[in-house]
Amino acid sequence: MPRTRLSPRLGRRALFALLATVALMLGGTAVPAYAEPGEGGSKKLQDALELTAKGHIEAKAKLDNSKRRQTALTGELTVVEGRLVGLTAQVGEVAAQSYRAGRLSPVAMLLNTATPQTFLQRASDLELMAQRDSKRLRDLVEARQQAQQAKLAIDAEVREQQKQLAVMAKKKKEAEAALAEVSSGGSNGFSGGSSASAKPAPRNSDGSWPSESCSVKDPTTSGCITPRTLHALNQTQAAGYKRHVSCKRSGGGGEHPKGRACDFAAATNGFEDRNATGGDKAYGDSLAAWHVRNADRLGVLYVIWYRQIWHPGTGWRSYSGSGSPAASHTNHVHLSLY
C-alpha cells in the first residue's frame, strides 16, 4: 500500500505540534514558534536611546540625592535655629546683668568684702560666672556659624537640582530628536500592571546604578546577562509574566549583545510572526505597563511594545518599525536596562 506523503508545510506544523506536546508533558515552557525577533531601528537610533536614557537616569539619581541632602540640611538648620533662640536669650540676660551692675568691676566687687571667707566665695562665684558667660558667647557664635553653613549648603543643593533638571530637559530634547526617525509624537501608553511590586535592584550609596558587565548566566539562552538584567527578569516572572523570554543575543545593536535587554513573547507559544490580539495583546499591554511602573526599581532604559516606546525622558511615544511584527514590536515586549 503506497504511503501518503505530507507536504513540507504540514510536516513542519506536525513537528511543532509534537515538540510542544513533549515540552508540556515534561513540564517545560512552550517551544517558540519562531526565532528571536530582530529589533529593527537603526544603530544610530539605538545608540541615541541608550545615551539619552542613561543621561536622564543619571541626572535624576543626582537630583533625588540632592533633594535628600537638602531635606537633611533643612532639618539641621531647624535645630540650629532653635538653639540660636535660646542662646540669644541667655546672652541677652548676661548683657542685662552687666548693665544692672553698672560700672562695678570684678576687682571692686572683691574688695567690697568683709571677711576672707566672703572674698574667696565671691572670687569663686565670679570665676564661674565668667566661665558660664564665655561659654554662652562661644555657643552663640558657633550656632550662628552652623546656621550660616547650613544655609549655604542648602543654596548649593538648590543650584545642583537646577543643574540636573537642565540636564534632564536636554536629554529629553535629544531623545525626541532621535525618536523623530520612528515617532510621530506622544501616545497614551498601556493600562494594566498597576502594581509597583518589583523588589528594587541594588544601587550605590548615592542612589546611582553600579556599572555591571555581562557576568551571569542567562537562563533564557546559552549566553550571559548582567546581574541587573537577571534581577529584572526574575522580578518580572515573579509578578506573573511567565511566557517565553529571550535575553542575550550575539548579533545586532542595542542592549541585547551587552546582556542588558530581554524580549518577552506575547503569545503563549512564544514568538509568533503575527500581531498579538485578544488575550495575547492584553498580556503585552499589562507587561509593558508593569515594566514602566517599576522602571525606577529595575533600572529601565526604555520599553517598546505595539508600535509605542517608553523612554524615561519622554514618556510613551508612537513607534514605527519596518512593518513586521518583530520590528514593530507587536508580537513581543522589548525591555532595555541600564
Automatic annotation (TrEMBL):
<feature type="domain" description="ARB-07466-like C-terminal">
    <location>
        <begin position="222"/>
        <end position="330"/>
    </location>
</feature>
<feature type="region of interest" description="Disordered">
    <location>
        <begin position="180"/>
        <end position="218"/>
    </location>
</feature>
<feature type="coiled-coil region">
    <location>
        <begin position="140"/>
        <end position="178"/>
    </location>
</feature>
<feature type="compositionally biased region" description="Polar residues">
    <location>
        <begin position="205"/>
        <end position="218"/>
    </location>
</feature>
<protein>
    <recommendedName>
        <fullName>ARB-07466-like C-terminal domain-containing protein</fullName>
    </recommendedName>
</protein>
<keyword id="KW-0175">Coiled coil</keyword>
<dbReference type="Pfam" id="PF26571">
    <property type="entry name" value="VldE"/>
</dbReference>
<dbReference type="InterPro" id="IPR058593">
    <property type="entry name" value="ARB_07466-like_C"/>
</dbReference>
<feature type="signal peptide">
    <location>
        <begin position="1"/>
        <end position="35"/>
    </location>
</feature>
<keyword id="KW-0732">Signal</keyword>
